[in-house]
Structure prediction request, 242 residues.
Amino acid sequence: MSDPTGPARRRRIAGEGKPAVPAAKPSARKVPARAAAAKKAATQKPAVVPPAKAAPTVKAPRPPKVSKPASDKRSHPDLRWSAPAALVAVAVLVLGIVLTVQGYRHVHGAGERLDDAREQATAAAASAVETVFTYKYTELDKHLSASTAIMTPSFAKTFKKYEPALQEAAQQRSVQMQSVVGDAAAMPCGDECSTTKMDVLVFYDQARLTSDSKTPTVFSNRASVSMVKTDDGWLVNDIRAR
Prediction:
């Protein structure tokens, strides 16, 4: 059985000393981890941290408006204002009715006045035609006076210019003329109608008797007679054969 101490004994016998044991290196002093981190942080420059962006503000939804119950003042109108408004409405209605009636009366009255003017002018024109176109060669002066009496001064002056020629022709042939109106009516006037001026269309027959014949000759004629209302009544202002 081998002796574990044999090699060492032999070395002692041989005069060898114990093998040199290398000197142990001094072990580094352990520094706690927290202290090392603190030291490192102190030596390093502080890192610049960019400012964090502000989060967008979100407006909170407004609470729905709660309608207040209508008070008695709103639900029931103030009689101090409703009463005058009702009176104004009634007044406007009455005024409208009055104006409508007045307008109707005005239009209706104007129509009646125009109808009366037509009738008067038509009757005066028919009578004037019988007077002007009825004469006898022995009574021409009387005819001239009666004719100009129903004419306006301006037309009477024009009529007198033709009187000498009429007297000469009537006396040469002993002319006797009798005119009878068969029909007469006021002519349409459109927007120019007036109660003081009127044109009347007159249809009349003339029976002429001369020294050359023993029986009269009858002619049918028509004329447009312009009538004008004056203080002396309706007068002839012009006569034109049609």
DSSP finds six helices and five strands in the chain. Residues 11 and 71 are 125 Å apart (CA to CA).
